[in-house]
Design a protein that fits this description.
Length: about 130
């Protein structure tokens, strides 16, 4: 019989805290909603990234290991490691997503979500399916 957590994939570090992880998760989810609520058609993607970063900092979170991503329209189809085409503008009937990984103290919250503006049914389905 093995002691609990003897499997290396189940081990946690000395700083592990369920409460800390849950707080980071909840603050990350709230930040995603706060950022999305401020994104509007006509906004340039790079400005939305700056808005996202500032929203995280204002919420007391630090930027973390992976880039803060906001992608509009055709840029949402690019692989994560592929750079966005600069200057993308969110259209009146468009899709965008957020992908953030802020740090709160010792814990990282990693989350993302797709959104649509306007009433394109194909994009709305894509956002629902991504969820």
């Amino acid at each position: 019989m093995h002691p609990p957590h003897s499997d290396p994939s189940e081990r946690v570090g000395p700083a592990f805290s369920v409460d800390g992880m849950l707080l980071a998760r909840n603050k990350t989810r709230q930040a995603i909603e706060d950022i999305a609520a401020r994104i509007r058609p006509g906004m340039i993607e790079e400005d939305a990234v700056a808005l996202a970063k500032q929203t995280l900092i204002d919420a007391g979170m630090a930027l973390s290991w992976h880039p803060t991503r906001v992608r509009f329209g055709a840029n949402t189809m690019k692989a994560m490691r592929q750079a966005s085409t600069p200057g993308a503008v969110l259209g009146e009937h468009d899709i965008f997503f957020l992908d953030i990984a802020p740090r709160l103290d010792a814990w990282e919250g990693d989350g993302g979500k797709s959104y649509v503006v306007g009433d394109d049914p194909g994009q709305a389905r894509c956002a629902r399916d991504a969820e």
